[in-house]
């Protein structure tokens, strides 16, 4: 991981040698930048989903506030933040990506409009529909990332295959 011949700087701030050191042997510098954007989108979508589930829980009333819907939303919120987002951030750290913009309050800029939902409706049915929109968007994102990482990032491919299955399970539960 220090061959001076292959350390000539290429566009997108990573050389082939640096990518190889990061375990991204099958990735070009341009693909690394594309991957960076995909990971930022996936992380932003996980934060959005967590926020949607977490905020709505606070406003559920009656049976919904103590029953199965609250329990399901709590489980899904935990999964989005403490499993998916945390694992994506670990992966980003491993491959030298710092999602600074996500922490400056503009994380929703990474989420395609069709993947967004109206946050926190007073109607539980609307909240379920909003969550279905978010989960469907996440599935679209992870299908794309799984295809992209297949021969480029084996560890990422395994992680995103696992998260994709979780997101499909979330959608089934809703």
Draw up the topology in text.
Elements: H1 16-21, H2 29-57, H3 62-66, H4 68-94, H5 124-149, H6 154-173
Poorly predicted segments: 1-12
The count of β-strands is: 0
Order of helices and strands: HHHHHH
Give the N-terminus to C-terminus distance in angstroms: 47 Å
Percent helix range: 55-70%
Helix count equals 6
Structural class label? mainly alpha
* Arithmetic mean of pLDDT: 82
Principal-axes shape call = elongated
Major sheet size, sense and barrel closure: none
Work out the strand percent.
Answer: under 5%
Describe the structure.
This protein has 6 helices and no strands. Helix 2 packs antiparallel against helix 5, helix 4 (68-94) packs antiparallel against helix 6 (154-173) and helix 5 packs antiparallel against helix 6 (154-173). The protein has helices at 16-21, 29-57, 62-66, 68-94, 124-149, 154-173. 31% of the residues are buried. It has 174 residues and is mainly alpha-helical.
Sum up the structure in keywords:
single chain, 174 residues, mainly alpha, 6 helices
Entry summary:
This protein is mostly helical and 174 residues long.
